[in-house]
Amino acid sequence: MALVLPTLTAFTSSRLTAILTAKTAADFNTAFDALFASNVNIIYNGKQVSRDQYRAQLLGQSSAAVEERGASVTVEGQLEVPGDKGQLSGLVGLFYTSLVDSKFLVLGAPAESKVTSSFNAVILDTEPRPQSNPRIRGYFDPRRIVTVNQIATDQAVHVTIPAASINPSSPGVTVNPGGPIQLGPTETNPRQEIFPGDGEFGAPPVVIAGETIGEETNTKA
Q1: Using H for helix, E for strand and C for coil, what is the string for the chain?
Q2: What are the residues whose beta carbons fall under 8 Å from the beta carbon of 161, sequence distance 6 or more?
């Protein structure tokens, strides 16, 4: 009975997701090598990069990075064109977003970044079949990406202060569910200011006998 391999898009999206959601560097490297050929040709944001440079780029966008805590990947669009060997070779295009949570906190909430990417790849069956071993179960997939052209943007997501971190019993603070935090009159302090004198700032001027202030003359000693 012949083994049916996953489709080209399923192969690419599942292994790319495994790379970006890997928890350790070892898991990341295993997943990376399971998707990209050793001699892969890479264009990233219009520039030719080496395999090691690309590995470092994806590592920084994954949950295996030192400063990251977790990542979630959503494939929002995919397209495949099988080659002359059916599902053993062909072209794959993916459009995906990845949300990465940092281990660092901003205002009590994890900092988060969003990667939006267009990922286009050429897949060939490059890996030689290993010798059969009855003790090893599972299927062998000889496919690897030999050419990849990726466009990606990495943007910081605005931090939202959790409502639980705000004490609604604080004087003058009103928590509006689903809306902005409102400050009461005791916080905004809309009281009228009263200044000394007839509207002047500070104490009135010293009046010396015989001196003229405006059109008035003080004749008192």
Answers
A1: CCCCCCCHHHHHHHHHHHHHCCCCHHHHHHHHHCCEEEEEEEEECCEEECHHHHHHHHHHCCCCCCCEEEEEEEEEEEEEEEECCEEEEEEEEEEEEEEEEEEEEECCEEEEEEEEEEEEEEEEECCCCCCCCCCCCCCCCCEEEEEEEEEEEEEEECCCCCHHHCCCCCCCEEECCCCCEEECHHHHCCCCCCCCCCCCCCCCCCCCCCCEECCEECCCC
A2: 107, 108, 109
Q: Can you tell me which residue has the tokens 């008192």?
A: 220
**What token pair was written down for 16?**
């790319």
pLDDT tens for each residue of 145-163: 999 999 999 887 655 555 5
**Bridge partner list, 147:** 41, 122
Q: Is the pTM of this model over 0.70?
A: no
User: Which amino acid is present at 203?
Assistant: A
Looking up tokens 């059109």, which residue turns up? 215
pLDDT tens per residue, range 85-144: 889 999 999 999 998 876 555 555 556 788 999 999 999 999 987 766 555 556 789 999
